[in-house]
Design goal:
By secondary structure, this protein is of the alpha/beta class. It is built from 13 helices and 5 strands. Helix 2 packs antiparallel against helix 3 and helix 11 packs across helix 12.
Length: about 280
């Protein structure tokens, strides 16, 4: 159970806020009604039985791939209770609590991940409202600009790109029009089994290139890119892949602080379709 709780917690404070709200709920019930805090105890018990335990994690994970989508499980007990309790605490009709709630919201907005809407000049929408890696926006914007300017790209098609596992998830948050060339399942398989190239064979070569900068069989990489209809590669600049990739007609387009964007001249798949492998 401790391992499941650590995975649910991630790098957030949601579970800490959830625990605080349970305590507040219990304290409020005891103070107001002299009861035994049944609501708080029931919420805690149901969360442990149905969400925060290894059995529930394994059972639900068989159906929904918990290793990827675990966040949706703790959203149910955690976020609803936080919203319920904080609404009760700050909007109970007392003006001082309403002011305190508004102040707490302003503090969270101001010190969140680049979420503050005000600057010295004007009122504006944040440019990086999700606090994404500094490489995400310049790479995504350059890729879409290059895609739109490339001859032969139709309005019905979207660019497909291969990223390392870190940048891939961040890129989807910022620009969902960019399709993934490497599936989640392929990354999970590689992480568990290494580069054995027996399963997801046409994606393993790409993983080796973008994730670790491995300069393996160039023609095998080229075949993998063509098979998957890949239009762009995004690889850490420190891997120094320019010369290696240029020999198979993959040329740099631009650089961000840490990554280089490469254009791939791809051969279309046999069925002529592009499918997003992100699911």
């Amino acid at each position: 159970m401790a391992g499941v709780l650590r995975q649910y917690q991630g790098d957030s404070l949601y579970l800490a806020a959830f625990a605080v709200c349970l305590v507040l709920l219990y304290w409020k019930e005891k103070k107001q009604g002299g009861s035994t805090g049944k609501k708080a105890l029931a919420a805690a018990a149901l969360s442990v039985v149905f969400v925060f335990n290894e059995a529930a994690y394994q059972i639900v994970g068989k159906i929904t791939n918990a290793a990827t989508y675990y966040r949706f499980f703790w959203m149910l007990p955690v976020l609803f209770l936080i919203a319920y309790e904080l609404t009760e605490a700050f909007f109970d009709g007392r003006r001082n609590r309403l002011v305190l709630g508004a102040l707490a919201f302003a503090v969270c907005l101001g010190f969140g991940a680049n979420l503050f809407f005000l600057n010295r000049a004007n009122f504006n929408l944040p440019k990086n409202m999700y606090g994404l890696d500094q490489n995400v926006m310049p790479i995504a914007d350059a890729m879409l600009k290059d895609w739109q300017e490339t001859d032969g790209s139709s309005q019905q098609e979207l660019p497909r790109a291969a990223f390392d596992i870190y940048l891939e998830y961040q890129m989807r948050t910022y620009e969902p029009r960019i399709l993934w060339a490497i599936s989640r399942n392929a990354y999970l398989y590689q992480a568990k089994h290494g580069y054995d190239f027996k399963k997801y064979v046409h994606q393993q070569h790409m993983i080796a290139a973008v994730n670790e900068g491995l300069k393996m069989n160039q023609q095998a990489l080229r075949r993998s890119l063509d098979k998957n209809g890949v239009d762009y590669l995004v690889i850490r600049t420190e891997f120094d892949m320019d010369s290696y990739l240029s020999q198979i007609s993959i040329m740099p387009v631009t650089q961000s602080e840490d990554y280089t964007l490469y254009r791939v001249k791809t051969a279309k798949n046999n069925d002529g379709e592009r499918k997003d492998l992100g699911g």
